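Lay summary. Proteins are chains of building blocks that fold into shapes, and those shapes determine what they do. In this project we predict the shape from the chain. Here is one chain we studied, written as its sequence of building blocks.
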Amino acid sequence: MEKIIDHIGVAVRNLETSIDFYKNTLGAKLIDRYRSEAKGVESEIAMMEVNGAITELLSPTNNTTSPIARFIKQKGKGVHHIAYRVEDLDIALKELETQGIRTLADTFRTNKHGRRLIYLNPVDTEGTIIEFCDYPNGKDITLKK
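And here is the predicted shape, written in a compact code that computers can read:
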């Protein structure tokens, strides 16, 4: 199954400063900003677009339980994950299973834009946090069809 980069997730400590940098230095456009208190997310997210490429800025909203807060404590701010878009997430999950690649089942969810996503187990990806996602309702905010 074909995979293309959907977005890059970047863990940040200060969302306002990061948004300003992306706007003023990179010429980015803020295409959405929202807060998710869902278990396993607990972050404020700013979606920045530069010439069709999306970067999600992720700032923890709970320094005790947010996975972004844990990431920053362990590795510092910076690239958190790379998201690959697949045509059909259900089929992609079956393919991963046949390859012996595990997912983090508790990360499976649909976000506010209708993007279904799940993270692969970093043990099986040489430590890189990789997200697989699809847009079954056709409402792809990233505009990259």
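What the prediction tells us: Residues 15-24 form the longest helix (10 residues).
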